Amino acid sequence: MDQDQFLLYDHQKPIRLRAERVAVYLQGEIIESYSEDNAVYYLFFYKYQFLTAVKATRLRRRSFIEKAFKRGMVFNAPHPFIKELLSSNHPCQILSFNPLLDKLEKHYTPQEKAFILTFFESFIPKKQLFNEIKAVFYHYNRKGQTFLGYKIIRILMDFAPNHSLVEYFANDIKVQKYADLYNKNAEKILAEDFIFAEKALYYRKKKDSCFQQLTERLEKESRWIDLIALFSCKLTSSPSTDYYYPLIKLLEAHFDEYETMSFLEALSSKLPEFRPLQQNLFQHYIKHHKIEAVSHMMKNHDFELNSNQVEIFGDLLEQVDPEEDLIEPEMLHTVLGPVMNMYPEKADNLLTKYVISLLKTEELSSIQEWLRPFNENYKNLQIIRKIDTMQELSNDPDQMQTLGELYYEFRQLNQAVECFSWQTELNPTDPKPLRWLAKVYGEMGKTQESEAYRQQCINLQKLA
């Protein structure tokens, strides 16, 4: 199964889904996914712990989930965040409302329960959610726990700001001292109401002081997904090593090398001129022998290979099968150049290997053009002379026999057959192209054609 495909269970019935993207927003994570019949499912997590999943028909405007994908930190699949959330919570089981309530009451504080319920506004009747959150408020209110009750009012002020009950309790004289502290983002409030504090700091994260406070909170809770997301978003908006080096440290601590490389690639598209990132990515490409990617970065960022790396790529280029490892011809120039400069004795063999591959799809004139930069530095290479000769012969009908033999030398059997067939038409009494056609068809596994030309050659020689 692909990395972005997984199973969701609905009463033991598996639903095959394909993850599309993930939103990291406040304390929640939401994976958007699609079934085989293109139904949309959302998987909800709270601080990396799976809550439940819902099948979506529409999203309510200004709901938590809409804000998550508009204001949150969103990453497209496949992504290590998705892999981590799914693997650490396997198997994911859909819970209906009442079992979900039981789960929240068992594993979370009443304030967390109230906040988590706001996640589901688009899928559970708002009145039902409101009544559950209101019950938490009344629980504190009856016990005279005014501050704890006001924490719930703050959640309701975001969830249902125009509700008469919310307006009444939000303006109650008994809570004004708390309201003033919240409005000022007082240190006492930021220290004691972590749900409000994270929201306040998140929306002010562009300010360095708020960003620092937010990262410190996330570090204390070991919420590394949020930290990686936060540093990458901060880096995108304000490229600086102050954000990049902590990000790299987090990636190396929690991702394997391929996941780190994939993450840096996605980030690279947003920061094409940020040198430290490009250098890191270049080193990953070298380590994992990404020839085309290395060539691209050498060409576009003026990176160079050191002597050890040139040696590695020299051996690698000799081992690569151009038929299986497709590399853009133009990209080969950048890597082949340093290798041939250090190991000129390898030049002919290396170029021959890639010319053989190019001959399958490219015209001789195009291959000549591709070889031109090498011709300037390596004028005596046999491969260059042979391609030049083939281009000259291709314009001379009387030289089809020689051209066919050169195509055969480069294992281009179809082109060789064309040349030898043309030669038989031009010189029907010449047995030589017939012998070659018998030979080439035999090597192509076409025994009937091979035998036919062999017999035709024998017959022609008898008449001579």
Structure, explained:
By secondary structure, the chain is of the alpha+beta class. Helix content is 63%, strand content 10%. Among the domains are: 1-124, no CATH class; 289-379; 396-464, Alpha Horseshoe (Serine Threonine Protein Phosphatase 5, Tetratricopeptide repeat), CATH 1.25.40.10. The chain is built from 25 helices and 7 strands. It is elongated and about 120 Å long. The chain starts with a strand and ends with a helix.
What multimeric state do the chains show? Answer: single chain
- Stretches where pLDDT is under 50 for at least 5 consecutive residues are none
Topology, number of strands = 7
Cα end-to-end separation: 67 Å
Fraction in beta strands:
5-15%
Overall pLDDT level: 91
The helical percent reads 55-70%
Radius of gyration: 34 Å
SSE blueprint and pairings:
Layout (H helix, E strand, L loop, with lengths): L4 E6 L2 E13 L2 E8 L4 E7 L2 E8 L7 H8 L1 E4 L3 H8 L4 E2 L3 H11 L2 H8 L8 H17 L3 H14 L4 H7 L5 H8 L3 H6 L1 H9 L5 H13 L3 H14 L3 H14 L2 H12 L6 H13 L3 H11 L5 H13 L9 H14 L4 H12 L5 H14 L4 H12 L6 H10 L3 H14 L5 H12 L3 H17 L1
Helix pairs in contact: 4-5, 5-6, 6-7, 12-13, 14-15, 15-16, 16-18, 17-18, 18-19, 20-21, 22-23, 23-24, 24-25
